[in-house]
Amino acid sequence: MTAPLRLGIAGLGTVGIGVVKIIRQKAELLRARIGREFVISAVSARNRDTDRGVALAGYEWEDDPVALATRDDVDVYLELIGGTEGAAKASVEAALRAGKDVVTANKAMLAIHGQALAEEAEAAGRAIRYEAAVAGGIPVIKALTEGLAGNEISRVMGVMNGTCNYILTRMEKAGLSYDAAFAEADGLGYLEADPTLDVGGIDAGHKLAILSAIAFGARPDFDGIELEGIERVTIEDIRAAADMGFRIKLLGVAQRTGRGLEQRMQPCLVPANSPLGQLEGGTNMVVIEGDAVEQIVLRGPGAGEGPTASAVMGDVCDLARGLRQPTFGQPADTLQEATRARSELPAPFYLRMALLDKPGALAKIATILGNSGVSIDRMRQYGHDDTTAPVLIVTHRTSRVALDEALTAMAQTDVVAGAPVALRIEHL
Amino acid sequence: MTAPLRLGIAGLGTVGIGVVKIIRQKAELLRARIGREFVISAVSARNRDTDRGVALAGYEWEDDPVALATRDDVDVYLELIGGTEGAAKASVEAALRAGKDVVTANKAMLAIHGQALAEEAEAAGRAIRYEAAVAGGIPVIKALTEGLAGNEISRVMGVMNGTCNYILTRMEKAGLSYDAAFAEADGLGYLEADPTLDVGGIDAGHKLAILSAIAFGARPDFDGIELEGIERVTIEDIRAAADMGFRIKLLGVAQRTGRGLEQRMQPCLVPANSPLGQLEGGTNMVVIEGDAVEQIVLRGPGAGEGPTASAVMGDVCDLARGLRQPTFGQPADTLQEATRARSELPAPFYLRMALLDKPGALAKIATILGNSGVSIDRMRQYGHDDTTAPVLIVTHRTSRVALDEALTAMAQTDVVAGAPVALRIEHL
């Protein structure tokens, strides 16, 4: 039997406590599978006195995560604090420099500082593992870096923010407005302290940047993602989509195009009866397409104590078994700086706009679309209450560039109130 | 850069040729990801002269797989021959004894001889990897042994034989009889040389035995599976199921019950709009339930050159990276001999039988069911042509034991022609 693997756990929120519970409750199972004991040498969190529902008195305590990360009796440092900068980053760097392997659930840190951290880890001969950072309990990082290593990946897609999916699902099922569904999610504690991270698509964007780096051998490029949140999706959009047999999902897509790497995280219409369309609540789904494997679909819980702790423990078990590989599946210095490509693959789009009650308004819009080469599949104008009338348009397949040209031209007319909503229709 | 990894490939059918192509065509990608070269030292197959659409003249040839498996210039032996015994088993054993790691796609060999082979591998300090043996391109072995290592697994389920699914799908979509759909699948080359392996559920049963061993820390126990093929499913069953909103799938389930390990591979009715019900053609799906992760669903192509070669390459890459672990996720000598449990969880059942045209026949059947405590949810008797009338019954939730008691009693009456068909209805 190999020596015990000694862990230092920083951050005792949902994920951290979930990990402590698994290690305490499943010592025997883990010993049978891994052939090693797991020992928690010390823990750290902001407040020592919080009742976390599990006895922590038996573990040494460190106020400072950096001190924890560099303890002599720690082999693997678990960074479960979160946040792009600050204690999370400082302690991970300190751990690597001190020769520790790192397990983290921190998608933001990896999406922003992943390249530098991967370089530090490799310089130190250590590993950073982060299964819990993307799609909760789904072992998607493992599938992509290991299981599909023989594939040239062509596309990665996913619905990866449970909170957005919850809000959109509740809007549809209960007929709630965006604000009401948002308030409900907030009341249930589903939202991050800064809710923009969720509803602005930033959290899901971080996850996409990580998947994209692995899939395409590129440096993580969060800033290269065309990012759009769900804040402007209305109950009318959801109903109109449903009428046409679609649901609205915050969908991430990363793919190679002739001109570079396209990454987008945007609300899209997907067929209601498709696997993506059927996703409800906090369930995540990731679709991976490769030249050999064709298409793999992975579905599972995207958050929560059990699923995220399951993912962290998978990483800890791998390290205990001696698996250590480059952070993004290949050495950091071989990751390419990806050329950013805008989405070029044409698609039908759903448009919603408020037309001012002026003669010829609709004709003007139709003309502008025609001039940009965007042809209309269906159009519907609703009876109006106020001085504006809602108009819904579904276009035939068009490029986003042509559509944006039309949207810019519309903004320069005097017939459209506010900015139109434009959502891509994906037939996945 | 570490030394090249030298491969010996035995079996140059679909899988073997797929692997050769990936290694030839993606040398650069693999080098970037793994940091090593892959070299094919030698190959072996039954017939050297077959045109396999890829140039093999550059590789050394061995007529005897055992000779290939023990060559000095082979680090990893790829057994892609197939078959439970014979050359496959002999060469794998020889490879392990000669200190080689083994990658195989051979589900039958692992389901039957897995325990002995795992012991041999561990005694030799070598690994057997077999991602391609279960569910084709889906990295399910990896998910179960590694990603979910922190979970107590409660249930594993799956649709894992593409040929059966193809036949059942064609029967429904094209209204074909079982025999016609079988002949179509045969014409397309989808069937094994011995078609019973597919339609008898044996191939899928082998896969279930492997998953079950990993999930429950049990010795693979293929003989412990309640096994039933699709041969008795008729177009009438498929139509009746569709009328009630169900589809028929050959579904494998392995779960722990209070009395032991329940393993069954049987045609079942599943809701048509559920993820399992929506599976079409050769696509496989595996569902894993664990105490921490809740439920993970993995979907992908279950067969074919690309997907199986992708799985084999995932294993080869893992070995190249130095990952080596016990065959079934924990040391072979810690695997328990599982107590076989019959399915005890009650479920509704679908019954079809041919009643002889005798007065009181239906009453007799209803009485027998009632006496066994099986209550009837719905019953339908069709107009009859011959001397028998088809009767369909859907029961309320009942145990299989009670149902079997009723079926035995029915067989002893003089009103039922032939053996009734009984299919479990799973609300998954």
Helices and strands in order:
2 copies of one chain form a homodimer.
Chain A: E1 5-10, H1 14-25, H2 27-34, E2 38-44, E3 60-61, H3 65-69, E4 76-79, H4 86-97, E5 101-104, H5 107-123, E6 128-129, H6 140-147, E7 153-159, H7 162-174, H8 178-187, H9 196-199, H10 202-216, E8 226-227, H11 235-243, E9 246-257, E10 260-271, E11 283-290, E12 294-301, H12 305-320, E13 349-356, H13 361-371, E14 376-381, E15 388-395, H14 400-411, E16 416-425
Parallel strand pairs in A: 1-2, 1-4, 2-3, 4-5, 5-6, 8-10, 10-16
Antiparallel strand pairs in A: 7-9, 7-11, 9-10, 11-12, 13-15, 13-16, 14-15
Helix pairs in contact in A: 1-12, 4-5, 5-10, 7-8, 13-14
Structure report:
The structure is a homodimer of 428-residue chains. By secondary structure, chain A is of the alpha/beta class. Chain A has three domains: 5-104, NAD(P)-binding Rossmann-like Domain (Rossmann fold, 3-Layer(aba) Sandwich); 140-302, Dihydrodipicolinate Reductase, domain 2 (2-Layer Sandwich), CATH 3.30.360; 349-425, Alpha-Beta Plaits. In chain A, 36% of the residues lie in helices and 25% in strands. Chain A has 14 helices and 16 strands. In chain A, the strands form two sheets. In chain A, strands 7, 8, 9, 10, 11, 12, 13, 14, 15 and 16 form a ten-stranded mixed sheet that branches. The first copy, chain A, has a six-stranded parallel sheet with strand order 3-2-1-4-5-6, with helices on both faces. In chain A, helix 4 (86-97) links the parallel strand 4 (76-79) and strand 5 (101-104). In chain A, helix 1 (14-25) packs across helix 12. The longest helix of chain A is centred in the N-terminal third of the chain and has 17 residues, at 107-123. The first copy, chain A, is elongated, with a radius of gyration of 24 Å. The model of chain A has no long low-confidence stretch (mean pLDDT 95). The interface between A and B is large, with 58 and 58 residues. Strand 12 (294-301) of chain A pairs antiparallel with strand 12 (294-301) of chain B, so a sheet runs across the interface.
